[in-house]
Amino acid sequence: MLSLLLLLALPQDPVEGAAAEEVSNQDAPALVIEDLVEVGLPLERSRIDLLPPAGALGGGWMMRAGELAFSVEQSLRRFRGMRDGRERVDARDEIATWSQARRASMSRWAVNGRYGLSDHVTLSAVVPVETRRVSWATDAERGRTSTHGLGDIELLADVRMFERLGERLIVGAGVITPTGEHDARDSWSGTPDALLPYWLQLGGGSWQGLVTASWIRQEGTWSWGAGARGTLPLEKNDSGWARERSLSADAWAARPFGDRWVGSARVQASGWSDVRGAAPGADPTASPLEDNGRQGGDRVEASLGLAYDLAGPGSATTNRLELSIGAPLWEDLDGPGPAAHLNLGLRWRASL
111: helix, coil or strand? Predict the structure, then answer.
């Protein structure tokens, strides 16, 4: 399974923002390896475009010591038809072999609580509630199956490794806890009380490791960023299978418009493996969504974002609304699997 790696190019010479126009480029020290371990610079919030846009990987939202913050996010990802490799699968061919997923969607509400353990370490917990739906068809009937409930909770510690005016690097490490259901049953593909396929299970049933990174840089009236996120199941669940390993990377650019608006554009590349192990009761001959060897894939997608700052200019706190809309540019699945079509995101975040 080949995972895509997005090569992120950043400018070589740092240019300070409007708050440091009196300092020349020659006075700004070059970024060297030793800088990455020199934490201790204060968190800089002088510009509203220095927060990563909605959907950006790696977080990049740091708290002061003792500061509390939260965000509420709703995301929706829609799928249309099936894809095998890079090609669309004809519904008639699919139904002749397996049941076909005609349409599918993932809807997710997530509450993210954050606490500044120090000026350099922020702890966070993400509690998701998810709904997944698949409209399926066989040669004899059609139907829709859905699951709804608590997903896998994420616990993360972000560390500010480096920060100076106009540039910062944050890395994070944590775990994904097995709180979501991984053995849900319902009517599926014409069979009552069937074990639902991997795609419809809300959880993985086992602990997973999580690592993130976020690099943000200010360039005149623009801000640029890059992020990464990786997950690794640490064991199989009690049903004998484990979620996909995954690696994602993105790059984004943002620009403020006036005192309160921020526009952004982002590109993300993601790769994920097949499921390790097989769930007892899954029938790969009935549907490709039940085949543990057909769950992996790679995808490149682009999105546009818009944010509105509710706190106002010069505020030391965060309070803003964010919106994003995106679509796939390229996709290669180990399927047949649901083909990505559109993704939407809405988030409100505020510090106390």
Answer: strand
Cα distance between the two ends of the chain? 44
The one-character DSSP state at 318 is: -
CA gap 106, 134 in Å, rounded = 9
pLDDT in tens, the chain (352 residues): 434 333 333 333 433 333 333 333 344 343 333 343 343 333 445 578 888 998 999 878 889 899 999 999 999 999 998 899 999 887 655 555 566 778 899 999 999 999 999 989 999 999 999 999 999 887 777 889 999 999 999 999 999 998 877 789 999 999 999 999 999 999 888 788 899 999 999 999 999 999 999 999 988 889 999 999 999 999 999 999 999 999 999 999 999 998 899 999 999 999 999 999 999 989 888 888 999 999 999 999 999 999 999 987 767 788 999 999 999 999 999 988 999 999 999 999 998 8
State residue 59 phi and psi, 5-degree precision: 75, -95
- Measured distance CA(129)–CA(112) in Å, rounded: 12
Count of positions (residues) in the chain: 352
DSSP string computed for 196-256: PPGGG-S--SS-EEEEEEEEEEEETTEEEEEEEEEEEE-S--TTS-BPPPEEEEEEEEEEE
Domains delineated in the chain: 18-351 (2.40.160.40)
Other beta carbons less than 10 A from residue 161's beta carbon: 17
Q: Round to whole Å and give the CA distance between 182 and 279.
A: 10
Question: Which DSSP category does 31 fall into?
Answer: P
Amino acid at 312: G
> By 3-state DSSP, what share of the chain in percent is helix, strand and coil, each rounded to 5?
10, 55, 40
Handedness of CA 181, 187, 190, 191 (dihedral sign): positive
Contact 62, 170 (CB under 8 A): yes
Which spans in 65-185 are helix H? Answer: 91-97
Contact yes or no for 111/70 (Cβ under 8 A):
yes
Do 256 and 47 contact (CB within 8 A), yes or no?
yes
Q: What is the pTM of this model?
A: 0.84
* CA–CA dist 213, 227 (Å, integer): 5
Which amino acid is present at 336? P
